[in-house]
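ugh finaly. both done.
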Amino acid sequence: MILSQDGIFTRAEQGADKYGQAKAREVLELCLGEAQMQKYESGLTDEQLTEKINSIGEEIKEGTNPNISQAIVDGYIFEVDRTVPKILDYIGPADGVIITATVTQNGDWQNPIATVTGVIKTYSGGTITTVSATKGGAKITGFSIDEEGKYTISDVTEDTTIEIKAKDSNNKDNSKTVPITIKIDVTPPTIEEVKATVEQMKIKITAIGHDKNASNQEESGIDYYSYEIVSTEDATLAGIPVSQRTGRFKEEETVTIEATKEATYTIKVTATDKCGNTLDTPKIAVIKTIPIRVTEIKIDKTSVLLEAGNTEKITVTILPSNATNKEVEWVSNKPNIAQISQDGIITAKQARYSYYNCYK
C-alpha cells in the first residue's frame, strides 16, 4: 500500500483534532462537574457558572433560550445546558469568525421594542477587520463592535430580519441571519374561577385567571378584574350600596360588600390585561344573602312621669347588635295626651295616662 505525503498529513491532522477535542471536552466536563456539585451543595448563580466557564475558556450566549449557551475551550465549541449544567453537544472547531446574537424585548407589551446584542470574534489567529449589518435589507448605519467584539442593535419595533457579516485579517468571513418577531399582546385574559361567598349579609368576591396566548406563553398579564352585580329579586339593587354595585379589583384582592336586603344576586366578572384586552364573556357567580334576624328589643324606661310640655328620651337597644335591619318605629296610642318622635322623644300634651310602643 502506498500513502501520499498529503494523506499522511491529513490523517495526522484528524488524529490531532480528535485528541484536542477529547482533551477540551475533558476540561469542560470537569469544570461543569464542579459546578454541579456547588449547585446541589450550596447553590450556583448564573454569574458564578459564567465565571467558571470563562476560567477555562470562553462562554458565548445567544438565541432566545437563556438555559443554553456555547463554550469555547482550547479552540473547540461545545453546547452547554446551563440548568444541570452539562455538555449537550460538540459543535465543531473554533476556526474563523464566530458571530453570536441574542434578541431581547423591553417587556412593554403596548410599545414593544427589541434589541439585538452579541459578539463577533475570530479564532483564526487574526483580527476582525470589517463588520456590517442590515435590517430588512437596509444598511444599519454606524454598526460597529467594541474592543471585546460586542455590538448592540437597538430600537427594533417591527418584525424583520437582521443580517450581520464580518471578515478577519486572514480573509476568513462569516454571516449570521437573525429573524425578529415582535411580541404583541392581542389575546384577552382568561378567568379560571370566580369565588363569591356569603357570610349572612356580607358578600366577598375574588377571582383567579391568567393572560396566556394559544401557545401557553405568558403575555402582558392581568391588570384588573371588573365586576357588576344584578338581581331579579332586587331589581333596583336597593340592598347593595350604590358605590359597590360595580367596581374593580386586583389579582389576589378580595372585594367585600355589606348587603342590606335578603335576595339572590348574580355577580358578573370580566378581566382586562395590561394592553387593554378585555374578556368579552363574563364569568358568572350566583349567591343569596341571608339576613340576621332581630331576636330582642330593649328600652331603657318602661314608664315616665311628665308634666304637660316636658319631654323625655327613650333609648332602644336592638339585639343582636349586628342585625341586618335595626330600624324601629315609635307609636303612641293617645297622641293627644303624649306624642313620641321617631327618635324616641316623648312630649307630654295633657295630664293623663298614655302608652308608647316600639315596633320592629
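ok and the 2nd:
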Amino acid sequence: MKFFYAGLAIAIYSVITFYIGWNVKALLQSFHLYRWPIVFWLILYLVAFGFIIGRFHEILSPFSIIGSYWMFILQYGLVLCILANVLVKWTPLSTKIVGMGAVVTLLVLFIIGTYNAYSPVVRYLTIEVDKPGEDMRVVMASDFHLGALSHKGHLQKFVDLSNAQMPDVVLLAGDIVDDSPRRFLKNGMGDVMKQLESTYGVYGILGNHEYYGKEIPEFKKAMKDAHVQILMDETILINNRFYLTGREDITHKKRLSLETLKPENEQLPWFVMNHTPNDLDEPAVLGVDFHVSGHTHKGQMWPNHLITQRIFELDYGHLAKEKMHALVSSGYGFWGPPTRIGSRSELWVVDVKFKEIK
C-alpha cells in the first residue's frame, strides 16, 4: 500500500509538472522561441525531480539546489498558470501578454520571498513566571536547516543578532542542519556557531530533519565542537537557576515521556525544548513554565499557513496555557526554496520575569 501511495504521489506530481511545462511551452511558442521539444521536456523533468536526484550522490547535489528553487515555481507557477488559462480563454488578452504578466508576477514574488528569507527579524516577548528567581533573557531560534542554501553568511547574521541581545541562554529548537551535518562541517559553520555568547551556554535539540539525515552521532559531535550542547530526552539543572529539558522529536517513536523527564524540584523554573509542537496539554498539566518549538515554519509560503493552523493548536507565536507559556517560531532558515511569503526568518528574544525573591 505504501508503494501505491508513493506511485500515486509521483504520478500527480508529474501531471502538475506537465501542466506547468505545457503553459511555458505555449508562452515560448507565442514568441516563436520553442525549440527542441525533447530537450525542453527532459530539462523540465530533471529540474522537477532534482530534489530527489541530488540525494543519490554528493556529485549530484547541485540538482538538490535546483530542485529547491523548483518547489517555489511549482507552488506559485501552478496558481499563475491556472489564472493565465482562465484569462486567455475568457478575455481578449493574448497568450503573450498574459504569459509575460505571469512571469513578472512570479519574479516579483521570488524577489520578495528571497528578501524575507535572508533578512531575519528579531521578535520580542516578555513573559511572567509565577516562581521566585532572577529575571533573565532568552534567545530562541529554530529550523536553521543549515546546508547549501541556508549558508554560513546566514548563520553569521544570527550570531551577530543574538550576541547584540546579550542573552543569558540561547536555545536552538531543532532542525539545526538540513538532514546532514556534512555541509555544516565542510563550510566551517562551526567556527561561526562558536561565536555565540551567553551567560549560561547554548543548547539545542534534534528536529525531524536530523533524524531524516540518519547521522545523529556526527551531528552531536559537530555541535559539541561548535560549543552547542545537544539534549536528547535529558533534563539538566543550569547554574541552580532553572531546569532545561530537551526532548527528542516525535519522529523518534520511542522517545521518553515528558513526565519521565520532569525535575523533582518544582520550585525552580522549568523550560522545555520540543521541536514539533504536537501536544501542549501534557507540558501544561505537568507544570512546564516555558515551552519552545519550531517545525511549522508558519507554512513558509502563503497560503500554507492555513494547513499548519489546522494541524497544530499553536502553529506560530505565543500562547499562555494554564501557567505555561508556549512559543512556536517560524524558524530562522527555510526548507526547500530559500523564499518566504507571508512569513519571515526570525529569532525571538524572550525576557522572563519572575516573582521577587523575599
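summary for the 2nd one i guess: DSSP finds twelve helices and twelve strands in the chain.
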